[in-house]
Amino acid sequence: MTTVSSEAAARAVIEVKDKIELNEVEKQIFDRLVNTLRHFNLNTELRVAGGWVRDKLLGKECYDIDIAIDNMLGSEFVDKVREYLLSTGEEAHGVGVIPRNPDQSKHLETARMRLLDLWIDFVNLRSEDYSENSRIPTMTFGTAKEDAYRRDLTINSLFYNINTGSVEDLTGRGIKDLKSGKIVTPLPPKDTFLDDPLRVLRAIRFGARFGFVLEEELTEAAACDDVKNALKAKISKERIGTEVIFIPYTVLLGNSYSLLALFLSVLVQIDLMISGNQPVKAMTYIADLTLFWVVFNLHPKVEPTVSEECQGLCVAYLDAAWNLIHLIGGSSFTGEQRRLCLYAALFLPFRNTIYKDEKGKKVPVVNYIFRDSLKQKASDPETVIKIHRSLEKFLTLIPLLTSNDDTQPAEVDMGMELFDVPITSKLRVATGFLLREVKEFWRVGLLISTMLYPSDVDSTQDFLEKKFELDRRKDLFKAAEDAIVNLGLEKVWDLKPLVNGKDIMTVLQLKSGGPVVKEWQQKLFAWQFAHPAGTVEECLDWMKETHLKRAKME
Questions:
Q1: pLDDT reported for residue 13
Q2: One MF term from GO for this chain (predicted)?
Q3: Cβ(345)–Cβ(269) below 8 Å
């Protein structure tokens, strides 16, 4: 495990503030909460828990405020806050309760309300015990110290006591580990991970996000067979991909309110790693801890067989794509395009790997990883597979798009017939059809294809050795991108057909649609790509003329 912790000796001390400085909104929120205590003469301590405390000590703003209460349920205190606010003439918004639901990994009742345009969660301090064969804990009221020790990491175990305005480090090492940049569990890591194996992924995510070092004992525990088996068996794969919580929304009706339960996927462990500021480091941790095939589980019968060592190539492609995105300029890609670009790069070695479903149909294994291993939304595998399928066509077009020679080849092999297209327009037509396939992800397809260019050279070993040739690939991308933009194809998928299906049926004298109409729609789009200034009349004339010619030949 030395790969994961080798940075420790060279790390500088992290700058951590001595005290938390509240902004004006936080001051007003906490004043309302303290005033509620005074209004009802409550002997209650309120603490902000977890990430907000950590981020504020690091000098970062955080809008995720979780309040831990020492002697009542969150719902009871929220009712008091609502009552106090109404007594002052201020309306309470979004008040609601998320009931305890162990079957959906929701082990504790949580109340939520909106104060000054911020959602605030309220929950009681708790202690948990896990049974040997269940990751659903027995939950009881606990002390602040018990609550701190049951948390995943020491840096997430800190409290900000609203009553006293002070930071509480009840594990005795939260501040220390924050300053030294270490990822450590409050309790022995193996016990912590066996209680909840998801904490392994959280440790990796926070380590990558902050550039912190995973403690050696933690890495040994994370990589041990007991924890890996627990990660496979105890956690549903749906929770690895997405931790689901309920977001309540309340419609106030006089003094009563009804709860509308909304579902929001949050703390998406793998997705947050990929979308975060250090995706390569996160995936490297996963690979180094021998968790890659636990997280990205493949179908048991894939064709061709995937070797265990393939994980190194997956991370290498991700590394190259991440660096290439930054070299090209992040503004060239939206957040969603960047996210799926990184997934497409990570799973690039699987682009030609398939499995057969129960009906014997061949399915890309990328589909299995997304839907069965990660339980991600259906559109993600569809887009990544579409990007992978576009690569061979991009590889065919790149030398033509980047050529300084204005003379175009007589044929462009795109796996489709280019109907009656002038030689000088074939490149524009072929590129237009390709961009219509991948739509707004065409730059992603182009970027990934530059990593495989030229296609007749096997650069696998170069990627494994991090010989990415990023400058050459950036220049290749820019040249092809400029050519596509100069061809006027940047948003070609928005192009409306000049001739609709009904007109096609009229010209062909058809009573109903079908394959023939679909074929002509393709022909007419090819004509539009070849004649960007063409009119409806010219397009119809060409269609009638072409149809008559073919009818005579038949």
A1: 76
A2: CC tRNA cytidylyltransferase activity
A3: no
Extended beta strands in 361-435, E state:
362-364
State the Cα–Cα distance between residues 79 and 377, nearest whole angstrom. Answer: 36
Q: How many whole angstroms separate alpha carbon 127 and alpha carbon 148?
A: 9
pLDDT tops 80 at residue 226: yes
- Indicate the residue type of 444: V
Give yes or no for residue 155 having a pLDDT over 70. yes
Q: How far apart (Å, rounded) are the C-alpha atoms in residues 307 and 312? A: 10
Neighbour tally for 158: CB within 10 Å? 27
Residues 124, 150: Cα–Cα separation, whole Å: 13
Tally Cβ neighbours within 10 Å of residue 469.
15
3-state secondary structure of 291: coil
**What is the tens place of the pLDDT at every residue in 356-370?**
998 999 999 999 999
Are the beta carbons of 204 and 289 closer than 8 angstroms? yes
- Please indicate whether residue 461 or residue 264 has the higher confidence score (pLDDT): 461
Counting every residue written for the chain, the total comes to: 554
132 exposure class (CB count in 10 Å sphere: 0-12, 13-18, 19+):
exposed
Bridge partner list, 466: none
Beta-bridge partners for 250: 259
